[in-house]
Amino acid sequence: MKIFFTSLCILLFSMIASTSLSQTHTSYTSILTPVETINREEYRQDLWDDFPMADGSVNDFEGIFTKDEERNLDSIITNLEQLKEVEIKIVTLDTNMVAKEKFNDFSMHLLNQWHVGKRVKDNGILICISSGYRQMRISNNFGIERILSDGETQLIIDKYFIPSYQRSRYYKGTLTGLKALIDKIYPRLYINVVKN
Hints:
The chain folds into two domains: 1-50; 58-195, Diaminopimelate Epimerase, Chain A, domain 1 (Roll). Helix content is 62%, strand content 11%. It contains six helices and four strands. The protein has helices at residues 2-49, 67-83, 103-113, 142-145, 150-165, 170-195, and strands at residues 58-60, 87-92, 124-130, 135-140. It has a four-stranded mixed beta sheet with strand order 1-2-3-4, with helices on both faces. α2 (67-83) links the parallel β1 (58-60) and β2. It starts with a helix and ends with a helix.
């Protein structure tokens, strides 16, 4: 009888404990979710208002490139900047930094906030990538828009960036796309320099 009573007490205690734990977990989740949402939105707004300034030509906040890949991309961009007055920045953004529906606006905003492009010629290009959203955008400043149309920019994205991105090969896609972009704008910049 004593064993039966002890077993019954243990069974009742474990049932009460598991019920109260599951209720605690449920209420904890319902309290946490709105706070998480508010914090994420505040974080995103803070980034919109005051994004960290660019550190070099490649700013990989998402961590999709190795250090060697970053250095190689940076070297290509730096060489172009020395030859022509063009400034290119590459930035990767994780999904906590910006909402999916604001990704394109954020890219243009960052192009302006970072002052990408030489002040006199306004020759700036920002390549913005989010592997989490499977999105990318190339934002061109006015000086680049005069020599590279939106349609041509989209063709470069579709033909050179996206095929590798679809296989999660972000470095290869970025390298191939960057070279195609340079090949397209370099001769046109030279013609503009000769005309001026």
